[in-house]
Amino acid sequence: MNFHAAKAFVLDKLERELSDKLAYHGIHHTLDVLYTIEELCYLEKVSPYEELLLKTAALFHDSGFTINNQEHEKLSCQIARRHLPAYGYTPAEIERICGMIMATRIPQAPKNYLEEIICDADLDYLGREDFYDIGSTLFKELKAYEILKSEEAWNRLQVNFLEKHTFFTRTNKKRRAPRKQQYLQELKEIVSGYEKS
């Protein structure tokens, strides 16, 4: 498993092929998920081998955006299946990595512990200090793709999303969930000021 070569390949691909419209799903998000996985693996005492699988999944999890912003997780798995054998990954390892990639699909539905870790890393910002800053980049991206038009629609979406979202790992339940609840209350107050739709 030549992780460093696979990492160099996919970061170069993201750098060259991601659309400028991806204010949220840019290479910075992929790197944020990668660093968060390193933190979670340390705090959750994940084995070095499984950490490499997780980090590979993090690097590839949004690579499908280089093709299309629809069904990007499936496209990310296609890219992983096409390229990872060249870096010494076995078919079984690639299937585990694709399981992790598919687990990040919203609504998240992890089937095992490693999938729970990548899910928490992917949405770690929901309970972090940079919640509003990162959220604004997602709003910008959704507007660019004409998925959302107004700030009101965005705030309603965020309330709905935060109410349904849950962290899975012990670490993030402890370090991120309380602040996430605080943001949910703040957004509910904003939304309560809107006229009933």
Characterise the protein shown here.
With about 200 residues, the protein is mainly alpha-helical. The protein has a single domain, classed as Orthogonal Bundle (Hypothetical protein af1432), CATH 1.10.3210.10. The protein is built from 10 helices and no strands. It has helices spanning about 5-15, 25-45, 50-60, 70-85, 90-105, 115-120, 130-145, 150-165, 170-175, 175-190.
Which structural traits does this protein have?
197 residues; Hypothetical protein af1432
* Percent in helix: 55-70%
Distance between the termini: 53 Å
Q: How many runs of DSSP E, i.e. beta strands?
A: 0
Strand count, sense and barrel status of the largest sheet are:
none
Determine the strand fraction and express it as a percent band. Answer: under 5%
Mean pLDDT, rounded to whole units?
97
What overall geometry do the principal axes of the alpha carbons give?
Answer: globular
CATH architecture level-2 label: Orthogonal Bundle
CATH fold topology? Hypothetical protein af1432
The first-level CATH class is given as Mainly Alpha
Number of domains: 1
Low-pLDDT ranges: none
Number of helices: 10
Q: List the helices and strands in order.
A: HHHHHHHHHH
C-alpha Rg (nearest Å)? 17 Å
Q: Decide which structural class fits the backbone.
A: mainly alpha
CATH superfamily label: Hypothetical protein af1432
